[in-house]
Amino acid sequence: MFVGDSTTRQVFWAVAKKLDQKRAEEEFLVMLDLELDGWQRNLQFVSDNVTLRFIWDPWLNSTGLDHELEKFRPDLPTSDSTGEEAEKSAGLILLGAPGIWNARHGGKNYMKDFKDAIDHVIPYMDHPHAPEKGLLSTPGRFTSRLSSPNLLLLAPVQVPIYDALSPSREATITPEKIDLMNDYLQQTSAHSEADVVWSYSLMTWAGRAAYEESGLHIIDEVARQKADVLLNLRCNVAAVARGSSFDRTCCTNYQPVVGTQSLLILAGLIAFPGLVFLRRKYGVPVDRLLPASKNMSALVTIGLVLCYCFYADRSQVFEKAQTYFQEKEFWSGCIIIAIVGMASIRKILTSIPNNAKPLSDFQDQAFLSRNQTDEWKGWMQLLILVYNYTGGETKLWIYEIVRLFVASYLFMTGFAHTLYFLRKEDYSFGRVATVLIRRNFLCLLLAYMMRNDYTFYYFALATSIWFLIIYMTLRIGINIPAFRAQFSLDMYIAFIGMMLGIFSHRVTHLKSGSINPVALLDRLLYFITIRNSRLFNATLTILALILLPGYWAVTRRSPDKDDYNWWQPYITFIPILSFVVLRNSNRLFRSYYSKTFAWFGRISLEMYVLQNHIWLAGDGRGLLRLGIWGPWVETAVLTPIFLWICWRIAGATQLLTGWIVYGDGQAPSGAQTEAKSPSLQGWIGEEFGSSSSSWRPSRDRGRKGLLSGILTKVGSSLGRRLMLMVVVLWVLNVTYGL
Fold it and tell me: Which domain of life is it from (predicted)?
């Protein structure tokens, strides 16, 4: 329902065009052909069971308006409401403040008439925001509800371009009159529950560009934006109750903070930093109650990062913007990444000790070394950032490449963990706990802080599941293929990585002479890969050069994502294995790597998880903005902050993983396969873990804190400590909404 003058009628037609643009434009042209008196009439537009009505009432004093106000109900009908009541109340009523008409035709009594009209409708707008009606937040303007409420809104007086008005209008519609009426409207609404759409006034701040030649009416684009605000206000609240995704939170409040979120914010902003401050100030008395300094610093880091994620992506502190694909931006990002990576290409510095054993670290790095896989993960993660930032999912060919990146991560998961288990033969519970906690610790905390399902951070979950599958396959020999159907898009690639890891491990042992090729399979591998190594390498290289473009040509035939997703599980291994072969086809390629890409690869998990909240916005559906400078400048400011946080959080989670699994001490030799964590030295002015720290007594070095002692007493084994963590998570789940 739209009630007002011609400025309100523009919004009516903008909403109608969103429902059925062709028919709305036809009816609008019919109205333009009428005489002036014909314009000043009531209108109705029906599309798909949605009825729009416009009441011509520039004074806001008609009987039709009174009738609609009497019928209006602010809340949706309850189960005991009659169908008649539900039919009567309009879902949305927009009243146009009668300022223009009063200024033009009100004469000396313009202000009195304006006040009378506003005072007449305000009592109907003073509807109570009762919690029992389904509120999600405290009383206030445009509060979020469990279901979309019926809304009664008032639009402010539209400020015209005064010097563009016709002489007759310019003489009567003056800035003094318009400002006086809007001031009264602001004062009145401040002392009532009336909802005034003040954002409409902000939309015309662009000046003449937002108006038609008349200087009184806005252009169609601005009218469409006003229509979007109305539709979002009316329709988005129910969607917000199901989540906080950016594409459905426009013009609505964020979900209110629950108890668990408040607890995490309190710990991150006050408790952990406060404890560090007390430790520095009072030394030993407080130090006895706290974990070791390096572990406390990790807690501070994670707490502050969680709070930063919350305020960046779940509040109005930062602005948000939509993503629109622009091919120029996408290619610019790719070129910048390529230049930075190529500029940091370095030779892998590996020396062979004099007393080298047959199976040495130098030989292990010959095929898919750690530097190679870190580099691989690094440039893929950077391209994924560009893909998400530029909205590249709208292009099928870019989507296909990114799906290959995800499959490549799982391939490396299978390859790396298989090699570790075969070389170290470490199937201990500590190893399993280390990998799972390292992968999931940050994601679990973010799920509570951001009110997301844990499955939203699906990459950590997927790699964790595949790690367990590989562990059980190698340790217990379980027949795992029954699980494959649950992983539709990447159901085979991790197994292929696992098979390649087994193959590489066996060939390495054959080359070193640590095993004799007695078995038939070993003799076959020895003959193909060692005695005829040049022919073997040349054959694989030629096949890779043929299959890689062949794969690209075949996938170009996929008409859409669904078709490509159907084929992907069966053909993904082709480009991945081709890349592995080409990357390791000769000694020169194996001996060099991009140091920059490798650095990014070591923090790729944190980049993948945190990008959704502190680089992008709205769980990755929008762009984070400061609202101060232009988009490129703000991106240049936010990107280093994002990367620095990822670097810090990578070190913090690895330290906490060692603390949880092994106590205050470090993991035993060989138990950790993650890249060396970034040092936390210098964080908030302390040298954590340094023996030269002036505030920490020397007798405290190596001593466990009271909290660690309590953990030891509660559960002297790793299993009991993990059980305690599970109980805490269960309590948080049960009490989350309180």
Answer: Eukaryota
